[in-house]
């Protein structure tokens, strides 16, 4: 079984012009195309099983075209057929390259392009598929290796931060929000009051060991699959950028919440992966299975998060959507992994896109009425504390002092109502307006409670315990409703 090869110059010919000319040459000769790509074409000279059949490979390089013919059948009369097939192609190519106009190239190239094979199925290109590590043993998940370097570093960093937090006295099972806030969690007032760094630090904090374990499991799974495709720089930038975007979306969506965890960044990684899986960049054999499993994971977690309280679905969606955008932005670099310039450009583009968008959103939110509302609410909480302190000291005062103290307490609650009415004029969410109505009701019930005590002491009697109990029950109900918001 023989072989023939010839190289011809394509200097002065654009890649698209050369490709269209090659494709048209094959069609003109009546050969059957096996596949086409942006690297060339593979075709068969004859589809008849009773005559000689050659496999023609046309591969484009730097200013040259390599034509090679190999036997695709074992026939006794194949002598000279290889050389003849190559000569036929070269002659046809030389004839058509001047006959085909640029306008024809512009019209015909997209028709061929839609049939290009995915990069990882293109045998005309070097095999650039990522090499996956065969992971065996529990501790290997935490050991940096080739194509799996950034993932274990991020996992170890998250675990170390959690251990330091626990060592400082934070609960290992269920740390409270204020403790996380002190360590850098994301929160409306704190973050938007100039503490922008919380957008990133919150991605490395967790509400207990179970929260940490679940997130690290998801991160390891995503990293094992995605890091070999993206490489260290693009994988790390994806994690950090989508984490920041997730934190910003959480701020935008929630009136007031303390959020922390790597899940926003992890959803971002899955978003990047989904973007890649929606194209032909990943070979078809892997693509369908991964698209199904990752799609189900994302849908399940979003649905579960919408049904269960305490899960920041806004951050999940923010991470997912920003990940999809970054994934599509990275595609040109993924198609040309050896082009350092394109890789630098897409990473820089992703950084500029996410940080600029996050900065604009942050500036808008920081100057919004919502932030003004929460800052001025600190004055309300101070009034509340003073008023409650008056009632707490009631039993330790002589009757002569109790009446002025109760009057002062009533004034504190009245000032609270005035403040809430002022704040209700701000442009805030319907949820905050609803909360304001509950706060006014709460203040009014407190005033009623103080008045019962005031009038009883004024008349030299004791407060009616039935009335006091009923008022306290109403106050408790309102407080429970407020705490659930």
SSE blueprint and pairings:
Elements (H helix, E strand, L loop, with lengths): L2 E7 L5 H14 L3 E6 L2 E5 L9 E8 L2 E8 L9 H19 L2 H12 L36 H18 L9 H7 L2 E2 H5 L5 H4 L7 H22 L1 H22 L4 E2 L3 H15 L6 H24 L5 H23 L4 H27 L2 H24 L6 H25 L6 H29 L6 H19 L2
Antiparallel strand pairs: 1-5, 2-3, 3-4, 4-5, 6-7
Helix pairs in contact: 1-2, 1-3, 4-8, 8-9, 8-10, 9-10, 9-12, 9-13, 10-11, 10-12, 12-13, 14-15, 15-16, 16-17
Subcellular location: Membrane
Keywords: Hydrolase, Membrane, Protease, Transmembrane, Transmembrane helix
Main location: membrane
Structure description:
- This protein is α+β, with helices and mostly antiparallel strands and 485 residues long.
- It has three domains: 3-116, TATA-Binding Protein (2-Layer Sandwich), CATH 3.30.310.80; 138-169 and 207-351, Rhomboid-like fold (Up-down Bundle); 369-483.
- The protein is 64% helix and 8% strand.
- It has helices at residues 15-28, 81-99, 102-113, 150-167, 177-183, 188-192, 198-201, 209-230, 232-253, 263-277, 284-307, 313-335, 340-366, 369-392, 399-423, 430-458, 465-483; strands at residues 3-9, 32-37, 40-44, 54-61, 64-71, 186-187, 258-259.
- It has a five-stranded antiparallel beta sheet, covered by helices on one side. A two-stranded antiparallel sheet has the order 6-7.
- Strand 2 and strand 3 form a beta hairpin.
- Helix 1 (15-28) packs across helix 3, helix 9 runs antiparallel to helix 12 (313-335) and helix 15 runs antiparallel to helix 16 (430-458).
- It is elongated.
- It starts with a strand and ends with a helix.
- The relative contact order is 0.06.
């Amino acid at each position: 079984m023989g072989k023939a090869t010839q190289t011809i110059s394509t200097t002065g010919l654009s890649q698209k012009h050369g490709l269209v000319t090659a494709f048209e040459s094959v069609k003109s000769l009546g050969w059957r195309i096996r596949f086409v790509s942006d690297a060339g074409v593979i075709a068969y000279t004859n589809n008849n099983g009773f005559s000689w059949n050659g496999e023609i490979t046309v591969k484009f390089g730097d200013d040259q075209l390599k034509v090679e013919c190999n036997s695709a059948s074992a026939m006794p009369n194949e002598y000279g057929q290889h050389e003849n097939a190559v000569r036929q192609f070269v002659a046809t190519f030389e004839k058509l390259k001047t006959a085909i106009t640029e306008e024809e190239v512009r019209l015909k190239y997209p028709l061929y392009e839609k049939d290009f094979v995915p990069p990882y199925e293109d045998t005309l290109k070097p095999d650039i598929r990522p090499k996956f590590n065969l992971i065996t043993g529990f501790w290997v998940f935490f050991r940096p290796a080739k194509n799996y370097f950034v993932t274990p570093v991020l996992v170890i960093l998250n675990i170390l931060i959690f251990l330091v937090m626990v060592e400082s006295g934070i609960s290992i099972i269920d740390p409270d929000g204020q403790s996380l806030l002190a360590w850098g969690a994301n929160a409306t007032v704190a973050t938007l009051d100039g503490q922008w760094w919380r957008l990133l630090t919150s991605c490395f904090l967790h509400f207990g060991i179970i929260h940490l374990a679940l997130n690290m499991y998801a991160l390891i799974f995503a990293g094992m699959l995605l890091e070999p495709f993206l490489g260290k720089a693009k994988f790390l930038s994806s994690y950090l950028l989508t984490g920041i975007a997730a934190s910003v979306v959480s701020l935008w969506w929630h009136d007031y919440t303390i959020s922390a965890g790597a899940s926003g960044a992890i959803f971002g990684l899955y978003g990047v992966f989904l973007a890649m899986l929606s194209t032909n960049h990943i070979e078809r054999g892997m693509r369908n299975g991964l698209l199904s499993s990752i799609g189900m994971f994302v849908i399940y977690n979003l649905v579960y998060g919408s049904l269960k309280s305490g899960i920041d679905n806004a951050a999940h969606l923010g991470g997912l959507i920003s990940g999809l955008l970054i994934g599509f932005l990275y595609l040109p670099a993924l198609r040309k992994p050896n082009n350092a310039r394109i890789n630098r450009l897409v990473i820089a583009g992703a950084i500029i896109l996410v940080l600029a968008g996050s900065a604009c959103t942050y500036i808008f939110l920081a100057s919004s009425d919502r932030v003004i509302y929460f800052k001025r609410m600190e004055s309300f909480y101070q009034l509340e504390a003073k008023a409650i302190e008056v009632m707490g000291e009631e039993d330790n005062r002589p009757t002569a002092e109790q009446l002025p103290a109760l009057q002062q307490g009533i004034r504190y609650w009245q000032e609270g109502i005035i403040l809430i009415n002022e704040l209700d004029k701000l442009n805030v969410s319907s949820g905050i307006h609803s909360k304001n109505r509950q706060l006014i009701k709460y203040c009014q019930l407190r005033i009623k409670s103080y008045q019962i005590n005031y009038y009883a002491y004024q008349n030299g009697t004791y407060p009616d315990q039935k009335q006091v109990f009923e008022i306290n029950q109403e106050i408790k109900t309102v407080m429970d409703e407020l705490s659930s918001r």
